[in-house]
Amino acid sequence: MTEEAVNLYIDELANDGLEFYANLAEYRMGKQ
Description:
1 helix, mainly alpha, 32 residues
């Protein structure tokens, strides 16, 4: 993998992670 490809891959993972945590926070707030 080129460095550029690695950076894109990391960005994708970071975005997925942020989305996951945002959904989790919403879910937990909705349950209270």
